[in-house]
C-alpha cells in the first residue's frame, strides 16, 4: 500500500497552474498529491518535474485562494489512480472521475492508474465485426469496426456535437451481441450548455443506462483536460477487458485537448514545435488512440470515435495531420454541405475507413454490402467530376449519361447523406440500392449481374432529359 506523507511549509511559489515546492520528500514524476489551502479545499495535482532541490506540481484544479504560507501538501505515494467497479454505467463524472451527478462514488473493486500504456502489439487482435452508428454515410461507406479508432474531422460551427450525441445514443452491435454493448462519452473542454445538452440527450433517450459520461468544462483548468480522456479510457478498459463488454468511446473535442497540451507545455517552458505545439504531441496522442483495440483471450473490445475540429478548416494542420497518422481512417465533415442544409455534412470522397473490409460482408452485415459501398463511392466520384465539367460547359453541354450522374450526385447528398433521423443498417442498405437504380445497368460496373438482379431495377435506356 502507498504511504502518504504530509508536509507543511513546502510551497515556495504559484504561477498559473504550476505550484513550486521544496524537495522535502522522496517523490517521482507523475506522482499524485493534494494541496490543501486555508479554505480547506483539497486540490488534486501531479508532479511534472523534479530536481535535487525543487518539485514542480501541475494542479488539476484552480489555484485561486491558494496561499504559500498556509498550504499543506499531502503526497500520495502513487500515480493518479481511478477507482473502478460495478456501477460505472448510468453515471456522470467530471474530468477527473469524480461524480458530477450528485451520486456517491463508484464502489472500488480495483484501483488503476489512468496513464497506463497502450495495448501490447504481441497480444493485440485484428479488429473485426460491425458497429452500427445509425449514420448512412458511415454505416454503408465508411463502416466502424469493433476495436478500430476512427476519428471525425470537423470544423468550427459544424454540427459535430449533435452528431456525437446522436451516435452515442444510437450506436449498437447487430443481433444478440448488443446486450454487452456500452458507451463511454468524454466531453473535453465543453461549455456548460453543451455539457448539459449532452447529459439531457442521453437521459431522455434512455441511452444513459449503458453509458458512462465524463464532462470536463471549458471553465475548468486546462491541465485537467489532459487527464479527462485518460480517465474515460481507464473506465472503458475496465468495462471492456474486466467486464467483457464491447465499448465505444466517443471523445469530443480532441482539439481542446491539444490546445491544453500546448498551453501546459508553454507554461513549463518547453521548446515549441510546429505552430507552437510541443514536439511530443504525436507520441502523446498515440498514448490515447492506441488504447483502442481488443486483446486476444479477453472477451471485450474497445473502439474509439474521437472528434476534432480542424483550425481554419485546414486538414493539414498538426492536430488532424498527426491524428491521421495514428488512426485507421477519418470521417470528414464539410462546410459546403452544411450550407446546403445537409445533416450530417459528411464528405464521402475524402472520408475513409481502413478497416471496413474486416467488419462488413457475409457474417457481419450482408454479403452484397462491399459491392454496394464500392459502387456508391465510384458513382459519386464520377458525379463530382461531372459537376466540374458542368460548371464549364453547362448542363446542356453534357451527354445524357452525364446528366444522370449529375442528378445522382444531388440526390445522393440530399436523400442518402442527409437524414432527419437515424437509420437502421437495413434502411441505409435499401436506400443505397435505390440510389443506384437511377443509372442504367451498363454503368453499374462494380456489381455482378446477380447483384443487379437481386437489388436493382435499373433504367434500361441510356438517355437523360434531352
What's the helix and strand layout?
Elements: E1 5-8, E2 11-15, E3 18-22, E4 31-36, E5 42-50, E6 54-59, E7 72-79, E8 81-84, E9 92-94, E10 110-113, E11 130-132, H1 136-139, E12 144-145, E13 152-154, H2 160-170, E14 172-173, E15 181-190, H3 192-205, E16 211-217, H4 222-225, H5 228-242, E17 246-252, H6 254-267, H7 281-289, E18 301-309, H8 318-326, E19 329-333, H9 335-339, E20 346-353, H10 369-393, H11 400-417, H12 425-436, H13 449-455
Parallel strand pairs: 9-16, 13-18, 13-19, 15-16, 15-17, 17-18
Antiparallel strand pairs: 1-7, 2-3, 3-6, 4-5, 4-7, 5-6, 8-10, 11-12, 11-14, 19-20
Which architecture name of the largest domain does CATH use? 3-Layer(aba) Sandwich
Distance linking N and C termini: 82 Å
Low-confidence stretches: none
Q: Strand pairing plus helix content: what structural class?
A: alpha/beta
Let me know the number of strands: 20
Find the CATH topology of the largest domain.
Rossmann fold
Described by strand count, sense and barrel closure, the largest sheet is:
8 strands, mixed
Strand content: 15-25%
In total, the number of domains comes to 3
Q: Regarding quaternary structure, how should these chains be classified?
A: single chain
Radius of gyration in whole Å, from Cα?
25 Å
CATH classification, class level of the largest domain: Alpha Beta
Share of helix, binned: 25-40%
InterPro entries: ATP-synt_VA_C (IPR055190), ATPase_a/bsu_AS (IPR020003), ATPase_F1/V1/A1_a/bsu_N (IPR004100), ATPase_F1/V1/A1_a/bsu_nucl-bd (IPR000194), P-loop_NTPase (IPR027417), V-ATPase_su_B/beta (IPR022879)
Family: Belongs to the ATPase alpha/beta chains family.
Keywords: ATP synthesis, ATP-binding, Hydrogen ion transport, Ion transport, Nucleotide-binding, Translocase, Transport
Function: Produces ATP from ADP in the presence of a proton gradient across the membrane. The V-type beta chain is a regulatory subunit.
Amino acid at each position: 500500500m502507498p504511504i502518504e506523507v504530509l508536509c507543511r511549509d513546502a510551497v515556495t511559489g504559484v504561477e498559473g497552474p504550476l505550484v513550486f515546492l521544496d524537495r522535502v520528500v522522496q517523490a517521482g514524476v507523475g506522482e499524485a498529491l493534494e494541496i490543501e489551502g486555508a479554505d480547506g479545499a483539497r486540490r488534486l495535482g501531479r508532479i511534472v518535474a523534479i530536481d535535487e532541490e525543487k518539485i514542480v506540481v501541475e494542479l488539476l484544479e484552480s489555484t485561486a485562494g491558494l496561499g504559500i504560507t498556509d498550504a499543506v501538501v499531502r503526497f500520495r505515494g502513487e500515480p493518479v489512480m481511478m477507482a473502478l467497479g460495478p456501477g460505472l454505467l448510468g453515471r456522470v463524472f467530471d474530468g477527473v472521475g469524480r461524480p458530477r451527478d450528485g451520486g456517491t462514488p463508484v464502489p472500488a473493486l480495483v484501483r488503476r492508474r489512468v496513464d497506463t500504456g497502450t495495448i501490447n502489439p504481441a497480444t493485440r487482435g485484428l479488429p473485426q465485426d460491425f458497429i452500427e452508428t445509425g449514420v448512412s454515410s458511415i454505416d454503408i461507406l465508411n463502416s466502424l469496426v469493433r476495436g478500430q479508432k476512427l476519428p471525425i474531422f470537423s470544423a468550427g460551427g459544424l454540427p459535430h456535437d449533435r452528431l456525437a450525441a446522436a451516435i452515442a445514443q444510437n450506436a449498437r452491435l447487430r443481433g444478440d451481441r448488443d446486450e454487452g454493448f456500452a458507451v463511454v462519452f468524454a466531453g473535453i473542454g465543453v461549455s456548460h450548455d453543451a455539457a448539459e445538452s449532452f447529459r439531457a440527450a442521453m437521459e431522455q433517450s434512455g441511452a444513459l443506462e449503458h453509458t458512462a459520461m465524463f464532462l470536463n468544462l471549458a471553465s475548468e483548468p486546462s491541465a485537467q483536460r489532459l487527464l479527462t480522456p485518460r480517465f474515460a479510457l481507464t473506465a472503458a478498459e475496465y468495462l471492456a477487458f474486466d467486464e467483457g463488454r464491447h465499448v465505444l468511446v466517443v471523445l469530443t473535442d480532441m482539439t481542446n485537448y491539444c490546445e491544453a497540451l500546448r498551453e501546459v507545455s508553454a507554461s513549463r517552458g518547453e521548446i515549441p514545435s510546429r505552430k507552437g505545439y510541443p514536439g511530443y504531441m504525436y507520441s502523446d496522442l498515440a498514448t490515447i488512440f492506441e488504447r483502442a483495440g481488443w486483446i486476444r483471450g479477453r472477451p471485450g473490445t474497445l473502439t474509439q470515435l474521437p472528434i476534432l475540429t480542424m483550425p481554419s478548416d485546414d486538414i493539414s494542420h498538426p492536430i488532424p495531420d498527426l491524428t491521421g497518422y495514428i488512426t485507421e481512417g477519418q470521417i470528414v465533415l464539410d462546410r459546403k454541405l452544411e450550407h446546403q442544409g445537409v445533416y450530417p455534412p459528411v464528405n464521402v470522397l475524402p472520408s475513409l475507413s481502413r478497416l471496413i473490409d474486416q467488419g462488413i460482408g457475409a457474417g457481419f452485415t450482408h454479403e452484397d454490402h462491399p459491392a454496394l459501398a464500392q459502387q456508391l463511392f465510384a458513382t459519386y466520384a464520377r458525379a463530382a467530376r461531372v459537376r466540374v465539367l458542368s460548371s464549364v460547359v453547362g448542363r446542356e453541354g453534357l451527354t445524357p449519361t452525364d446528366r444522370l450522374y449529375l442528378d445522382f450526385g444531388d440526390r445522393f447528398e440530399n436523400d442518402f447523406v442527409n437524414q432527419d433521423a437515424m437509420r437502421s443498417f437495413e434502411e441505409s442498405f435499401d436506400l443505397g440500392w435505390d440510389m443506384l437504380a437511377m443509372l442504367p445497368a451498363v454503368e453499374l460496373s462494380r456489381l455482378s449481374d446477380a447483384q443487379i438482379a437481386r437489388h436493382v431495377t435499373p433504367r434500361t435506356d441510356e438517355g437523360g432529359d434531352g
